[in-house]
Amino acid sequence: MKIAIMQPYIYPYIGYYQLIRSVDKFVILDDVNFIKRGWVHRNNLSDNKLFTIPIVRASQNKLILETEYSIDEKWSSKFYKRLHQVYGKTKNYKTIVNLIENDITNGVGSISDLNYKTLKTICSYLEIETNIIPTSQIYKINSLKGQDRIISICEKENAKTYINAIGGQNLYDKESFNNKNIELKFIKTNFNSYDSMLTLLMNKDKNNLIKELNNYDLI
Length: 219
Hints:
Elements: E1 2-6, H1 14-21, E2 25-28, E3 42-44, E4 50-52, E5 68-71, H2 73-87, H3 93-103, E6 107-110, H4 111-125, E7 131-133, H5 146-156, E8 161-165, H6 174-178, E9 183-189, H7 197-203, H8 206-212, E10 216-218
Parallel strand pairs: 1-2, 1-8, 2-7, 8-9
Antiparallel strand pairs: 3-4, 5-6, 9-10
């Protein structure tokens, strides 16, 4: 069993989807603190400007799963207008906007649930069949922090391999994982883009993009 565990981000870069593709089970880590200037509720489009999902009383004292978004007609109108301005002439614009519109609608809810929904939609489009666990709350690991939290989830899932994004190399110790009979690996994308996946989805041929999901190294 290969497993990956990450916080839920809104339309993250291709490496995030490669990570999901590389494992048997992917766990949404949402019982950790929300970060106001993080990537849970915002990302860049190809105009190098942020879009931000509106958060209700944003607080770093709340867990991600406790953090609510609130989308109204004014925000939606502005967001979809901007998508048209940035991507309106791309080859896949109508197809991808339809996918987005099915998920991002007016209303209030958990930002974790919204990001899970958008992640499932894009994974389905890209034919990624990995089992995605919608919340880490089911593991009841609130008392654990950092690496110990990750190892605990791996043990509960009987995982033999844990794969993390390359940025986590300084966070985890291979010996600690080995002591629990878990192999620790890091995924390094070979695709030269850290933009939101929306940019690639709008511009790239679907079949070629699916092939690019395998363009990574495990170290």
